[in-house]
């Protein structure tokens, strides 16, 4: 005797994915109301100044990846 066929309910386990995707679209209204998700760059603080970057790259060229020497330069 042949094995019985599986019911079409197998795809039900993926219906949650569609629900989550559609709920993410609703989150865009939070962006319009002034709230936005904080980015990692926002939490790190201000960017380096041009002088700081020049000093870093100069020390990096001089010492390579010896970070202790780069940080003391």
From TrEMBL:
Pfam families: Myb_DNA-binding. SUPFAM superfamilies: Homeodomain-like. Signal peptide: none annotated. It is found in: Nucleus. Keywords: Nucleus. GO terms for biological process: DNA-templated transcription; regulation of cell cycle; regulation of transcription by RNA polymerase II. Residues 43-73 form the SANT domain. Residues 21-44 are annotated as: Disordered. One of its GO terms (molecular function) is DNA binding. Residues 48-73 form the HTH myb-type domain. GO terms for cellular component: nucleoplasm; transcription repressor complex. PANTHER family: LIN-9 (PTHR21689), PROTEIN LIN-9 HOMOLOG (PTHR21689:SF2). This is Uncharacterized protein. It comes from Gossypium davidsonii (Davidson's cotton).
